[in-house]
TrEMBL record:
This is DNA-directed DNA polymerase. InterPro entries: DNA_pol3_clamp-load_cplx_C, DNA_polIII_delta, P-loop_NTPase. Belongs to the DNA polymerase HolA subunit family. Keywords: DNA replication, DNA-directed DNA polymerase, Nucleotidyltransferase, Transferase. Its EC number is 2.7.7.7. It comes from Ruegeria marisflavi. Gene3D superfamilies: 1.20.272.10, P-loop containing nucleotide triphosphate hydrolases. It catalyses: DNA(n) + a 2'-deoxyribonucleoside 5'-triphosphate = DNA(n+1) + diphosphate. It is an enzyme of class 2 (transferase).
Length: 342
């Protein structure tokens, strides 16, 4: 049987131990692995692997020895409780062995959990699980986790008191990060909040969120917008060493100053303009953007955008011979000087 994404979320949390098997497939190996970990942990409990109720095998090995899967699901363990035979990264060529095990399965046998990459609708492995009356097939897509899924992950990490604003920030973070990085961030938050009964706040998230190239880019844009000329050069060198190119810097700066202009040019003032931003901004970043928009004003921001447009055109010009990074550095210093003028 085929499970929809909404049905799958509930099933992963509370799987049926009496099912024959479960196929989890998708193009993102990390997302598939996280779901597989969740469902196996829910089936076996915290001590399942220690009690040897979990058998692992590589999907590619089934081509040489197809009988090993049937032997594994029939084997009787020493410890009582549900058992799982996990087939990892199963290729299409191993599907006959898996489908044969599905047919041989009887109540009391170990449940078969199979993971695979992206499978076409014509895949024999996928069609076998979807057509089986007592097995499930679930496709995992590159969608960010839903709010309910984030709440489950927070509860699993031991974080339960999360006000609406930090929850919105976590939802935005889940869209920006990969599934593995987001899971690690929640684990870091759990350790950070250990023995701390206070509700989760924005500062906690800021302290635990990964420090990436984007964070360094934000640092540069903020010092430019706040007129800190002495910090422009060192930050540019750091970003250049990380592999950031001149065109990317110019695009990011244009995006930042357009955000400021959208706030400053709002008929109701920057305070109303920042409320109209999509996606919304929260916490310290919101206060910083609002302060920058109020300091610059719409007229000077128009001038700043003209400087950035001219720089972008120069960078993309076919006849451009000057070094690109110095062009961007000169534009950033001009903007920093402009922010201090009245």
């Amino acid at each position: 049987m085929k499970l929809s994404p909404r049905e799958a979320e509930g099933y992963f949390a509370k799987p049926d131990a009496g099912r024959t098997g479960l196929l989890i497939y998708g193009g993102d190996a990390m997302r598939v692995a996280l779901k597989r970990q969740q469902v196996i942990a829910a089936l076996l409990g915290p001590n399942g692997e220690e009690e040897m109720r979990l058998t692992r095998m590589a999907g590619g090995d089934l081509r040489k020895d197809p009988a090993q899967l049937v032997d594994a699901i029939k084997a009787v363990g020493f410890f009582p409780g549900p058992r799982v035979t996990f087939v990892e990264d199963c290729p299409e060529l191993s599907s006959p062995a898996v489908l044969a095990a599905l047919e041989d399965w009887e109540p009391g046998d170990a449940q078969i959990v199979v993971t695979a990459g992206q499978l076409k609708a014509t895949s024999k492995l996928r069609k076998g699980f979807e057509a089986h009356p007592n097995a499930y097939a679930v496709g995992i897509y590159d969608d960010p986790p839903s709010r309910a899924e984030i709440e489950r992950m927070l509860a699993q990490a031991g974080i339960r008191d999360v006000p609406p604003e930090p929850m919105s920030v976590l939802a935005n973070l889940a869209r920006e990060l990969g599934p593995g990085d987001f899971t690690q961030t929640l684990e870091k938050l759990a350790l950070y909040k250990l023995n701390d009964a206070a509700p989760l706040n924005l500062e906690d998230i800021t302290d635990c969120a990964p420090r990436s190239t984007e964070a360094g880019l934000d640092d540069l844009l903020n010092v430019v917008a706040e007129g800190k000329m002495d910090a422009v050069g060192p930050l540019l060198r750091r970003l250049q060493a990380q592999g950031t190119n001149a065109t990317g810097l110019c695009i990011a700066a244009t995006r930042h100053f357009r955000t400021l202009y959208a706030c400053a040019s709002d008929p109701g003032g920057p305070g109303q303009g920042i409320n109209r931003l999509r996606p919304p901004v929260y916490g310290p970043r919101r206060d910083r953007i609002l302060g920058q928009a109020q300091t610059w004003g719409a007229r000077r921001l128009e001038t700043a955008l003209t400087v950035l447009t001219d720089t972008d055109l120069a960078l993309r010009s076919a006849g451009q011979s000057a070094p690109q990074m110095p062009l961007v550095e000169r534009a950033m210093i001009r903007l920093a000087m402009l922010s201090r003028s009245r």
